[in-house]
Amino acid sequence: MGEETTTLGTIHISPKAVATIAYHAALQSYGVVGLAPKNLAEGLASSITHVPAHGISVLYNGEEVDIDIHVIVEYGTRITSVASSVANTVRYQVEKALGMSVHNINVHVQGLRVSNPD
Amino acid sequence: MISPEAQARLEQFKAMPIDGQALKKLVEAGLTWLRANQQTVNALNVFPVPDGDTGTNMVLTMQSAWAEIDNLGHRNVGQMAAAVSQGALMGARGNSGVILSQLWRGFARALHNQENLDGPGLVRAFAEARDTAYKGVVRPVEGTILTVAKDVASAAKYALAETQDPFEILERVVPAADASVEHTPELLPVLKQAGVVDSGGKGLFYILEGMLRYVYGQPLDTPLATVQPLSAMNLENTLESIEPGQDFEVVVDFVPSGSLDLQKFYGELETMGTSIQVGEGEGMYRMHIHVPTENRYHPIDYVMTLGTITKVAMENLLAQMDAVGQKASPDSIELANVEPGQIAVVAVSPGRGIARVFASLGVAAIVEGGQTMNPSTQEILSAFENLPTDKVIILPNNKNIILAAQAAKDVTVKNVHIVPSRTIPQGLAAMMQFNPAGDAEAVAAKMGKSLGDVTSGEITTATRTVEIDGVSVEKGQVIALMNGKLVLSAAAVEEACMGFLDKAEAASHELITLFYGEDLAQSEAARLVDVIRAAYPSQEIELQYGGQPHYQLIISVE
Hints:
The complex is a heterodimer of chains A (118) and B (558). Chain A is of the alpha+beta class. Chain A has helices spanning 15-28, 40-49, 79-98, and strands at residues 4-6, 9-11, 32-35, 56-60, 65-74, 102-113. In chain A, helix 1 packs across helix 3 (79-98). In chain B, a hairpin with a 2-residue loop joins strand 3 (274-281) and strand 4 (284-291). Chain B has helices spanning 4-15, 20-36, 38-42, 54-69, 77-91, 94-110, 119-135, 145-160, 166-187, 189-194, 199-216, 262-270, 298-304, 317-327, 352-360, 377-385, 402-411, 424-432, 440-449, 493-503, 522-535; strands at residues 228-229, 248-256, 274-281, 284-291, 307-316, 343-349, 365-368, 391-395, 415-418, 455-461, 466-468, 471-473, 478-482, 485-490, 511-516, 540-545, 551-557. Chain B has four domains: 4-216, DhaL domain (Serine Threonine Protein Phosphatase 5, Tetratricopeptide repeat, Alpha Horseshoe); 228-323, ACT domain (Alpha-Beta Plaits, 2-Layer Sandwich); 329-453, 3-Layer(aba) Sandwich (Rossmann fold); 455-557, Hypothetical Protein Tm841, Chain: A,domain 3 (2-Layer Sandwich), CATH 3.30.1180. In chain B, helix 8 runs parallel beside helix 11, helix 9 runs antiparallel to helix 11 (199-216) and helix 18 packs across helix 19 (440-449). Chain B is α/β, with parallel strands linked by helices. The A-B interface holds A 27-34, 74, 76-78, 80-82, 84-85, 88-89, 92, 115-116, 118 and B 47-51, 89-90, 92-95, 97-99, 101-102, 105-106, 109, 112, 132, 135-139, 141, 437.
């Protein structure tokens, strides 16, 4: 995906690379305490392969990039605010690093972590 | 460093324990000072991330916290802090807002069940605030509000070695927060590149500084003598802060002949007017001020003495305010702010007082109208057409207006729900169920269901002799309507009111609210309340100014 032709040849950016950027951006977002595999199969696969981007799926249909992020959020935060700031941060970081625009970012809150029950 | 007056005020504060009410004042001061410096914080946003501006987000978060405690009478500091935390959480906006809400959450947890806030308690609260905030993220980024919270907590801890007094600790914490904010570019390269300090950290600093300024008795409404980049000057919004008497807006561009002594400059300007802003870009300064008519040339004359004026712009704010005022019909009523995607409620109100009550419950637009002055479809339509959302709920609050509301719904492309409230009390009961962020249809259904929870009474004077529903009425008599139906006639307001309460079985309800109209004196209304209180000792009775014409009283029994 993300092909660009230069005078020297073409540059390919793989979805995995995009996912890695998104993964790190998501983890730096406030309120996100982890990413979650979206299903059991992916969970098993990523634990075997150690993909540094589990919980992120990147879709590229030839024109537009869609990113799905599965996150665990800290209990006691305002979840909608956290989710929208994840989407903003990921969009900003991916667009900045790759110079291409991201069409949709879907944030799925897969669970909450309770570290401060009150 | 501080003035003798401030020192004296500080001593007064030190003599009293910080209970819930004192904390409330401090929170208010923090919010006010943050709001005064909102633009400065906004200007620090380096990321072009569209999640709103940091200053605005933090102000909205603090505002939500303030709304939660505004009416609380708790003496217990732990309970008050818990309420602040709750409010901040509910209103948390943007990244910095969420972090701020977590800071409050930790702060409140440390004070759980405490009667008063003492020095060691404050230190623990700052530490717990830091810990809670850090737990909310896997990879904390240093050089942000988190770092400032951390430095605040350590400064408080060190201060404890020297003093046990919470105010003296605050005195040491504020400069530490300032230094921490100034240090953020060293920790976060992106800040250094942009040549700014962290905005969230700066916002936190303003909240703390606001509290300290309140203790010192320093003003909280004018931003410090700071100069912002010209591009950051936001002169459009200054209209909001206009005060009566400040009729002219003067903007002067100038190049100072020497270096500008900002403290003195602000000091001089403050004697002339309000809403002072100073901007600077490439050696050129821009000064903005609101002044009374008779002072309108003073700022220009003053700036002349400082350098060369390149441009002067002057505008009569009264004309502008008229234009603004027409949009938000009943003046000075604070309507709810609607965000895109949220639900906006349009309520029809017959009087100023009732409109204000509706506004306080979250109504986004008011249409004036009632029994004898039904608003047109167009008036209802234009009340919501300009709101930045397509989800609208209309409360007609009168059976004769439901049709006009229906017509407005048919005309517009917006997604409109009508909650068929027939009386003011029904409309208010429905507003109790309102949630701007919910699903419009579900919210409207819930509001509709609540209409039956309240019995509405209206007391008015009969305009003709008639017999309806088995009640005969002479022209000039006082009549009472229950849920829109004529139930009795009487010689005076008091008799009609008591008769209505009897028919409404007020004795088996909990709350009686009276809205007195423009035809009834406040003293008379207050006397009525005493009479009612004597007859219904176990019910809670509230009196509000309704301002409606023709109806001496609108009564809600629930």
